[in-house]
């Protein structure tokens, strides 16, 4: 049903970027709660609070996937100096992108499931359902790993039409 997209972000005019924020997330499941709080503060500051429910669900799924599937088994799950997962929120005039960076080179895989009451295995299905598009791309250079992103279209204000 969902094929992982190995591509970068859709073309966006860099001149239209209005805001960006990011936070490092430790390798523990409490990081999902921290990501939701960070998302709430950021969207409220950007006057996009009405988009919080959909964006927060997607952020939660992307961070959970990074913690569950992208970290090596020996990654310490306690406070650490260099957190392995990072959440980025970027706002353009008509778009919002949530991106989660993790250290794995493995592509995200959407599992086929008919059991929508299952407790796990639906993450990328939800990302696909609640965002306008999503994808991933490997990182080059010293960072390594990958970025999984989701894009949300924002309503245009009358001054931008």
Structural overview:
The protein is of the alpha+beta class. The protein is built from 3 helices and 5 strands; from the N terminus they run E-H-H-E-E-H-E-E. Strands 1-2-3-5-4 form a 5-stranded antiparallel β-sheet, covered by helices on one side. Strand 2 and strand 3 (95-102) form a beta hairpin. The model is unreliable at 1-8 (pLDDT under 50).
How many angstroms separate the termini? 35 Å
Report strand order across the widest sheet: 1-2-3-5-4
Shape: globular
SSE pattern, N- to C-terminal: EHHEEHEE
Helicity level: 25-40%
**Total number of helical segments?**
3
Beta strands, count? 5
Radius of gyration: 16 Å
Q: What is the average of the pLDDT values?
A: 80
In short:
With 161 residues, the chain is an alpha+beta fold. The protein has helices at residues 30-45, 52-70, 123-130, and strands at residues 17-25, 85-92, 95-102, 133-138, 146-153.
Topology:
Layout lengths: L16 E9 L4 H16 L6 H19 L14 E8 L2 E8 L20 H8 L2 E6 L7 E8 L8
Antiparallel strand pairs: 1-2, 2-3, 3-5, 4-5
Kindly list the characteristics that best describe this protein.
3 helices; five-stranded antiparallel β-sheet; 24% strand; single chain; 161 residues; disordered N terminus; alpha+beta
